[in-house]
Amino acid sequence: MARAGYLALGIFIIGCLWEAAIAIFALPPFILPPLASIGGAIWSEFPFLMRGLRATLTVAGAGYAVGAVAAILLALSMVLVPTIERVVKPVIVAINSVPVVAYAPLCLVWFGMGPASKIAMVILAAGFTVFVNALQGLQSVDAAGVNLLRSFGAGPFRIAWMLRLPAALPAIITGLRVAVVRSMIIAIVAEMLGAYEGLGRIIYESTQQIEFLTLWAAIIVASTASMIAYGILVVIDRRLVWWK
């Protein structure tokens, strides 16, 4: 309840600053429209915005799920077989040293304008975030605990299941929380660069048609969806990592 109160207070303060900036600097609507006008746009175009949100969430959710699972499995395989880390990790770092949006033209050529190209980009962005945190968490286990389990005859897989994964959960959940927001960002940016539907497509078309209320409405809907997804991960964090 306290966190919800702080969130409401933060939104209220931002809203007050927003309206105050419009009044003090006499900003025209195309620069910063009143919140009431944005709310009216959301209300009047709600079905249209929800269709776009559904498409964006499908892309972001699919890429997030595949990327997160693949990242955790890859990090675990590197811990179990150190040779894999020495061979694969430099390649992963090299690929992610370039902004993900730079791969957009290639993804569009390889996978087309449909959801597949956006999902591939989200997998790349979200997977790397989860991978870095998961690998760090799995490798930061106390050596004394590992040696103790080995003394009882536990093999690498049993040590990973009983010690490494539980110890790495806080780091993994942190990576998942960061990746969920990043997934929405990449999905929207990818849709802006080339898509048939989605919030990113709505934002791009609204900009081209100078429909700034629709533009802000899509941004608010995307931001709200990201906040809700992040909040779900916070709840999972509390439930799953109860000892933290």
UniProtKB/TrEMBL annotation:
Family of this protein: Belongs to the binding-protein-dependent transport system permease family.
SUPFAM superfamilies recorded: MetI-like (SSF161098)
GO biological process, one term: transmembrane transport
Lineage: superkingdom: Bacteria
Organism: Oceanibacterium hippocampi
Compartment(s) where it occurs, according to its Swiss-Prot or TrEMBL record: Cell membrane
Topology of the protein relative to the lipid bilayer: Multi-pass membrane protein
Any one Gene Ontology cellular component term annotated for this protein: plasma membrane
Residues passing through the membrane, by range: 7-25, 31-50, 62-84, 90-112, 119-139, 159-178, 185-204, 216-236
Alphabetically ordered keywords of this record: Cell membrane, Membrane, Transmembrane, Transmembrane helix, Transport
Record keyword Translocase present: no
Domain ABC transmembrane type-1: start-end pairs: 53-237
Protein name according to UniProt: Putative aliphatic sulfonates transport permease protein SsuC
Primary subcellular site in the record, as a coarse category: membrane
